[in-house]
Amino acid sequence: MVSPLLARREGGEVRMLLTLVQPERLKRILARMFDSEEFLSHFGIRSLSASYREPVTFDVDGRSLSIEYEPGESRTGMFGGNSNWRGPVWFPVNVLLADKLRAYGRYYGDSFTIEIPTGSGNHRTLTDAADLIDNGLAGLFRPVDGKRPADGERIESSLDPLWSVHPSFNEYFDGDTGEGLGATHQTGWTALVAHLLRPRLPL
Questions:
Q1: Span 36-52, average pLDDT
Q2: What pLDDT does residue 14 have?
Q3: Torsion of CA 4, 33, 187, 195, to 10 degrees
Q4: Whole-number Å distance between alpha carbons of 88 and 82
Q5: 20 to 30 A Cα–Cα from 194, which one of 32, 93, 132, 151?
């Protein structure tokens, strides 16, 4: 019953972690998650691997069904016209992922590292991995050449002060470009960017 509870001693202190994912499996999961050909985008972690740009098709009870990576708005009317969990970056899920990586990082310390991005040979701690996610999310709102990536080419990217100084808080974001999609007033979760932009407080 206590197998999910890990414990390690470091400098006279005992650290404990309740987890269903053992270290070897965690490394395998994170290798996929931080692969830029799969889940890692410039603006966070995608909701479906970009390796499925070509659809995966299978038969169920004589019906041919498929799923494919769609970074933004759906190309079909399914799910009300948006692709939901088929590729976009979702703000609250990414914040939770980063927070959990920090929890793992506090337990494992600097000795547990992963490649970021996968295959680069650049080994980073889990805290570094969490910072990468947080910085990607914050980057949606940081101007690049005078425009916020989240604004895309919509009216929000105009120089009109009504838009330039009042960012919208989109429901989710294109997994390739970062353009904000869906509802533009998700202050219940996308406004979490204010938490990410403030100086990090000590633990």
A1: 95
A2: 80
A3: 70
A4: 10
A5: 32
